[in-house]
Amino acid sequence: MNRRLLVAYGALAALLACAPFALDGYWLDVLNNVGLYALLALSLNLILGDAGLFNMGQAAFYAVGAYTTAILNTRVGMPILWTLPLAAIAAAVFAAVVARPVIRLRGDYLLIVTIGMGEIVRIALVNDVFGLTGGANGIFGIARPEILGYRLRRPPQADFFYLIWGFVALTVFLFHRLEQSRFGRALNYLREDETAAEGSGVNTLRYRLFAFVLGASWAGMAGSIYASKMSIISPESFSFWESVVLFMIVILGGSGSIPGVLVGSFLVVGLPEMFRGFATARMAVFGVVMMVMMVFRTQGLLPFRCPRFREADLSRAEAALAAARAKSAAGAAAASAVKAGVAP
């Protein structure tokens, strides 16, 4: 991360830390929703933005995580925070099972399959699979998380606010580190040119599948937090529209851009609440803004930018390459001399 981005993150963190002291319970809950959608959009950005896989079934993984937490808590009595990794594992396993046969598909074909997957999950939840999901009524009585004996409370208390946004901060940090790793660079190669990536030795199938599974696991954890916050979940909360909103956040903010996803979350989720008094007109205005964006700013508000290398970095790289070549040449000369029977 460059210095400018660190300053921007620091300013955002300072504003969010002060928000509970300046906002009432309603706007605090709006920021909670923005944070949840930011988590989900960051998980989708790993699949759509980094790996370039068209996925509009992210709500299915969100639902798997939420229902895993709800079932384990209400039927087994497991504490909420203990269910968080289990929700991630359940969503990851489900993603691996579903994606393995279809991961070779590309573009619109993969998009259609993921839409169907999301609808299948929603219908299965409505039909009360194995008598565990509660059907259309959902699951009630989900407990609140407890940390060292303290039970988190809903707004106007700021407990969930700090939990959600703390998790967002952790996600941003980890995903930036992932972006700079070998795995992150491989995903970028896939997004830009899958054929060239495969020709360069990147196992495209494995990286596509792992990106899908990792993004699903993060959506599962977001679902776990959502279930504990609401204390009641139903299939209506995981409809196709949720996947559309997440897709819109990533595209609007900038595909592959972590800061862009955060900005997109505030605009798509938070901004309409500010104009709720205009009723249906706010959605019309929002639709017009989206159309204008797609025409004049197709790459998004804050698109992903490849890292720039300074001339000094290039000089050091060239010097290191020259030294490596000289060392290799010296080693080859020594080996030839030994082979010819002459002391090096």
Give an overview of the whole structure:
The structure is a single chain. The protein is an all-alpha fold and 344 residues long. It has helices at 3-22, 25-50, 58-76, 80-99, 107-126, 159-179, 182-192, 194-199, 204-230, 240-253, 258-274, 281-296, 311-339; strands at residues 146-147, 150-151. Strands 1-2 form a two-stranded antiparallel ribbon. Strand 1 and strand 2 (150-151) form a beta hairpin. Helix 1 (3-22) runs antiparallel to helix 6.
Secondary-structure blueprint of this entry?
Elements: H1 3-22, H2 25-50, H3 58-76, H4 80-99, H5 107-126, E1 146-147, E2 150-151, H6 159-179, H7 182-192, H8 194-199, H9 204-230, H10 240-253, H11 258-274, H12 281-296, H13 311-339
Major sheet characteristics: 2 strands, antiparallel
**What is the CATH topology descriptor of the largest domain?**
ABC transporter involved in vitamin B12 uptake, BtuC
Count the E strands.
2
Question: Which regions have little confidence, pLDDT < 50, spanning 5+ residues?
Answer: none
Average residue-wise pLDDT: 84
Our measurement of the CA-to-CA distance between the termini, rounded to an integer number of angstroms, reads: 48 Å
Query: What fraction of the residues are assigned to beta strands by DSSP?
Result: under 5%
Main structural class: mainly alpha
**What is the overall number of helices?**
13
Indicate the radius of gyration in whole angstroms.
24 Å
Order of helices and strands: HHHHHEEHHHHHHHH
Strand order of the largest sheet: 1-2
The count of domains is 2
Helix-residue proportion? over 70%
Shape summary: globular
The CATH level-2 architecture of the largest domain is identified as: Orthogonal Bundle
CATH class of the largest domain: Mainly Alpha
